[in-house]
Amino acid sequence: MSYLTQCGILLKKHDPDRFFLSLFAPADMQSAFWALGMFNHEIAKTREVVTSSTMGLIRLQWWRDAFTRWYEKGIATKHEVLDELLLAIEKYKLPYDLFEKLLVAREQDLHDEIADIENYARDTSAPLFELYSVILAHARISENRAQDSRFCGDDVERLATSYALVGLARTGQYKGAINTQKQKFKSRYFRAVQAFVELYTQAPQKIPKFKELRVWAGSFL
């Protein structure tokens, strides 16, 4: 594990499961994973920290404006998470469109009900996993091609959706919706769940500290 950055410290506190998974990335890439994880945490908690949907939209718009200033003008907006995230964006040429997709998806959190839990899980997670894939691509290909190298497609989408569904089931807020469609999820995401289980079992001594395996067993298998 590389030396913990501020985002690494925060992610370990606020999203320990995602922090744990980041430790399987190459050491020199982990700080980028931590920054992405904390960005995801910041926008995911929007509904919890605002008093109205209007304030939530304003909060998400702040991030959109910060990204626009950076991508269009190279101007950095000071923020403890954004400072490290911009370093990752610059180093790995992370595309703006994936951040925009995450911000649009998080606008759904401001509604009282989620119409389609599967689409919600996919939309709020798949772009983040694609950003991970762009970073990981740097371990395999030349710098000149890195910005076009996403391991996108069904595999990334299934992994991302599966992970998000696990998180939703654990919070309890959407557990009913997930349970009513369990058989569909079981057939479509079983391989993704297996992949995560195999990843966790590479470090069995750490598993008791994390909750994902118990949730997978109860909600999917």
Spell out the blueprint of helices and strands.
Elements: H1 6-14, H2 16-22, H3 30-44, H4 46-49, H5 53-73, H6 80-92, H7 96-106, H8 117-137, H9 143-146, H10 154-171, H11 175-180, H12 182-200, H13 212-219
Helix pairs in contact: 1-2, 1-3, 3-6, 3-8, 5-7, 7-8, 8-10, 10-12, 10-13
Provide a descriptive summary of the structure in words.
With 221 residues, the protein is mainly α. It has one domain: Orthogonal Bundle (Farnesyl Diphosphate Synthase), CATH 1.10.600. The protein has 13 helices and no strands. The protein is globular and about 40 Å long.
Task: Give the tags.
0% strand; mainly alpha; disordered C terminus; single chain; Farnesyl Diphosphate Synthase; globular; 221 residues
Strand content: under 5%
Structural class: mainly alpha
Low-confidence stretches are 145-150, 205-221
The portion of residues assigned to helices is over 70%
* CATH level 1 name: Mainly Alpha
Question: CA-to-CA gap between the ends?
Answer: 32 Å
Count of helix runs:
13
Identify the CATH architecture: Orthogonal Bundle
Alpha-carbon Rg, integer: 17 Å
CATH fold descriptor: Farnesyl Diphosphate Synthase
Compute the average pLDDT.
79
* Total strand segments: 0
- Oligomeric grouping of the chains: single chain
Number of structural domains: 1
Question: Can you tell me the CATH superfamily?
Answer: Farnesyl Diphosphate Synthase
Largest sheet: none
Order of helices and strands: HHHHHHHHHHHHH
Shape: globular
